[in-house]
Design brief:
Length: 395
Amino acid sequence: DWRQGQAIPGGREVAADMTNLYYANKRGTDTFRGCATYADFRELFEKEKGLDAVKIMTPDHLHATIAIAAMRAGKRVLLHKPLANRLREARRVIETARETGMATHFIPSSSGGDVSISAQLVRAGAIGKLLEIHNWSRRPVWPQYPTLPTDTPPVPKDFIWDLWLGPSLDRPYHPNYTHAVFRGWYEFGGGAIADMGHYSLWRVFAEFGLDAPVLVESTPSHVCTLRDKVSMKVANDYSFPAASTVRFKFAAKGERPALELFWYDGGMRPRTPEELDRANEELADEGMLFVGEKGKILAGFWGDKPRLLSGDARDALPAAVPANVDWVKSFRGGEATSGNFLLAGPISDAMNLAAISLRLGGKRLLWDAAAMKITNRPEAEKYLTREYRKGWEIA
C-alpha cells in the first residue's frame, strides 16, 4: 500500500521497500541482505565497495557534482536530464567520462526514436532542403514563482537542507524551491526546455548532426505588479518565465545546410501551417514540425506519428531506426550506447545557453563552442558556471 495517497511517491524508504519487495518475490523463502539507504552520496561511495553503477535523479543542480564524483570513484553512471544546469559543469561531466573511461548513459536519449522516420524523409528529399524544426511543449506543469520567497518556514523534520543545497550558496529553506518545483529556478533547475527538450530533441541532434548552436535568442514572458499605483515589470533573473520561445541557429555541416530550431513552452506554439488551415485543422498543444523548401512534416512532441503535410507524397513511411540504449550491456563491458555522455555536448550547450538568454531577458547570444565563450555579451559569461559553496567546488 506504499503508493496509496502519494501523488509522486519517492524517498529512500520507498526505494528500499520497492527493492526489497522485488527480491522477496523473486527469491521466495531465500534470505538476503536488505537494501541499505544513505542520505549522502559521498558516504554511499565510501562504504559500498561493491557498488557497480549509479542512477542519478536528484534536482538538476546536483547532477554534475554527483556524476563526476561517481565516475572518479569508478562507478558507471545512468543520469537523468540535464547533464548539468550550468554549461561548464556539463562540459566537465563529459570530460570526466572521457578521462575515466567509465560507461555512461543519458536517460532521455532513449526517447524520440520516431524522429528517425522524419529524418529519413528529409534525407530522401521529401520536403526539399530542411530549413526549420519547431518543437513545442505544454510545460511547465508546476508553479512558476515570479518572486523570491520572503518568509522563512522551518526545515521539515529529517530533511537535510544543507545537503540538498549542495554546491549552491546558502539561502533560507523554503518549500517553493524543493520537490516538484525546483525546475523553475535558474539556480536549481533548467526550466521547461531542459525538463522536456532533452527527450524530444536528443534524436533531432543525432539524426541531423547538430553541433552546438552558433546563435541563441529567446522571447520570455514577464510579470507585472503595481508599485505606488503604477504598473511595473517585475525584474527577475532567478526564475524561468511562465512561457517562452527560443531560437537556435546551427551552422551547415557536410551536406546539411544551416538550419534553425525553435522551442516553445507555456502554451506557445508556432504559426499554424497553411496546409492545416486549408483542412480546417489546428496544431495540437504539443508537437514537432519540420519545414523544408518544398514541404512540411508534422509529428507529435516526441517526433511520433509523423505525416507529410506537403511535399513528395509517399505510399508508406519508412520504419523507425532503433537506437542502442542497452545500458545494461554497455555497463557490463559492451558497446557504448547512443546516449553515452560523450555525445551530449551539443544539446547540453544548447539547453544551458537557452537558460542564459532567458535569464538576460531574451538577449541574443553568439556562441563559440570551441573557445567555450559567449562572444558578444561579456556580462553573460558568469552564467556559464555558478558561484560554489565552499567545499563543493568542481575542479
